[in-house]
Structures are given as C-alpha cells and as structure tokens.
C-alpha cells in the first residue's frame, strides 16, 4: 500500500492535462510567434490557456497573465520587475515566513543597497497588519507577503494587508502558489497588484507558472530577447506545458466548490486522529489554514536520533510520502527557518513535518497514516506508548 501525502511539493499531472499536452506535441507544435498556419495554431492554444488560467483567479483581462517557468520565476519577476523600475535603491517589505523564491531576491537586494524589512509573525505564523502599517515608509515601493505558507499551512490576511499597502501607495505582491486551485481567489476583489501561481501545484505539468499583473502596473523584464509575453518574459513559450497548465486550471476552478470542503474534512480528521499523541504538536494557524495542509513538530526532536527527517524516512519505508521542514546541508541538519521565525527553538525547528492531501487522498488513507505514525513514534519514543495506546 502506498499513500502520497506531499501534494504541496508537487501534484500528479492529471490525465486531461497530459492529453492536451500530447495533442500539442503531435499536432500543434508550431512556434506561436510565427505568422503561418502552424504558428497560429500554437498561438491559439497559448491564448486559450491564458484565458483558462485567468479564469481560475477571475482576472477579467487574460493579458494580465504572464507565463513563466514556474512560481519561482513568477516571484522573481514580480520583485525584480518592480525594483528595476527604480533608478536608486528604495525600501521593500516581506514577511519572515516567505518561500526562498522571495527571500533570496530580497537578500540580493540588500547587497545592492536596498532596505528590506522582514515582518515578524506570531507563533501561528501570521503577520499582524498593524506591524505592516508601522513598517511602511515614504519610499516603500513593494510589499510581498505569502498567501499560504507551504511548510506550516498558515493563510495570511491578504485582503487586509493588501489594502494597507495600496492605501500607502506601495505595490502589493503575494506568492499564492499553495493557495491557487485550493482556495477561491478573485483578483477583482482582492487588493493585490501581483500574484504568483504554479502549474504543478494544481495537477498541471511541472515547468510552467504565471504572474498575474494588475492592469496599469508596470514592470521591467529580467532578460532581453524576442519580446514574448508582452515583452516581460522573452523566449519561445513552452506551448505543450502551458496547454496542460490551462486545462488543469480550468478543471481546478470547476472542482473548487466540492474539492475544498472535502479536503478540509480530511485535514481535520487527520489532526483529530493524532490529537492524542502528546509530543506531536500542531504548527501553524489551525483556523486560517490551507484546506489540504497538516503539520506538526516533534517535541522530542534532537536532530540526531529523532528529527522530522527521521519520521519522513520511516514513513517512506511504510509506503507513505510526507516531507520535513529542516534542511540537510553537508550531512548536518539545519533548523527550519520558518519555525525559527515563529519563535520555536532550534531544537524544535529540527522536528517539523508536513502532510498535505490531494485529489486522490481518501479517508482510509488518512486513518492508515495516523495509525502508522503512532506505531513509528512508539518505536522511536517508547515512553509515549502508554499515552498513544501501543
């Protein structure tokens, strides 16, 4: 029996998207920039996908969707595209729980003389809107706050944060890679200027993403070339992959009203099944949370015999795929920077684990996984046996 519970890392490409890709690869393989029939067939496929992706977030103008190679490139285009509009270094604000696709560009900007404010979060991983208000300056040109945190599942108050930034005159970007296709997002109602999304997080193929740019917002491209994607992302578009992305986006939008509540029920069931394990402590905000996301830290983690990575390996041997927050560099574990930012100790930050659910996850999968986790923890920490009934 194999159970995949790492849908926040990647999702399996759905058959409908694969079929669309195969059609393009075999029948509509032209360069969309070419004026002849072969090129125009490919261009039509490209624009259809743009309409499909725009529809998922209710972007009225499909031209506001710029295709990229994934969420990382979309984040970089948002941040660096805004930065390159400035002639001298200014000030930007990010949260302390961003994906590395945001933190690394911010680190680079500091080396270039930019001022970067990193907003702290509470122990549930949420930004206090008052902190954003206090951090804004006269020269703040951009605020970037992640929509749903991939490691601990917390969903930020994006509507409130975006409104604060825009009222101040700063552009607002959100990395919504984990949220799009799992939560309803309407950019006509949400005060965001820039929003990043990724194909392979919503059952499309790997290698495609998009940046939504609110009409009227100007960016400078990161690279020069043939001027594709409104001049913001030069290079021949990966039409087959983008076609699969479009199909996956359209189906995600159609299934959202039923799939999101189903995932929430399974998520809450898994939390409940593991509630009697005293040293398995939930992380993130349990109320403002991604619908598919379950996360904990191991209170007895020591980074040696017991860590998040230990549990990942043990569950993998049992045929269950989950992930851990701590990173391994040169054979040595590094604490999760997300848990550290939330105020956890370095020891606790070695013990983070994440279980993320998806379209193929069943109640039986959840129940079996909970049982296996308890058995594994009983072997690793025998002193828990009386509590968890082993």
Number of helical elements? 11
Order of helices and strands: EHHEHEHEHEHEEEHEEHEEEEHEHH
Strand content: 15-25%
Structural class: alpha/beta
Tally the beta strands: 15
Return residue spans where pLDDT drops below 50 for at least 5 consecutive residues.
384-390
CATH superfamily of the largest domain: Type I PLP-dependent aspartate aminotransferase-like (Major domain)
CATH architecture of the largest domain: 3-Layer(aba) Sandwich
Strand order of the largest sheet: 2-8-7-6-5-3-4
Helical content band: 25-40%
Care to describe what's here?
The chain is an alpha/beta fold and 390 residues long. The protein has two domains: 3-8 and 256-388, Aspartate Aminotransferase, domain 1; 15-252, Type I PLP-dependent aspartate aminotransferase-like (Major domain) (Aspartate Aminotransferase, domain 2), CATH 3.40.640. It is built from eleven helices and 15 strands. The protein has helices spanning 15-27, 37-56, 71-83, 100-111, 129-135, 158-168, 239-273, 308-317, 337-341, 363-380, 385-388; strands at residues 3-4, 65-68, 91-95, 115-119, 140-144, 171-175, 194-198, 209-213, 280-282, 293-298, 320-321, 323-324, 327-329, 332-334, 352-356. The strands form four sheets. The chain has a seven-stranded mixed beta sheet with strand order 2-8-7-6-5-3-4, with helices on both faces. Helix 4 (100-111) links the parallel strand 3 (91-95) and strand 4. Helix 2 (37-56) runs parallel beside helix 7, helix 3 (71-83) packs parallel to helix 4 (100-111) and helix 7 (239-273) packs across helix 10 (363-380).
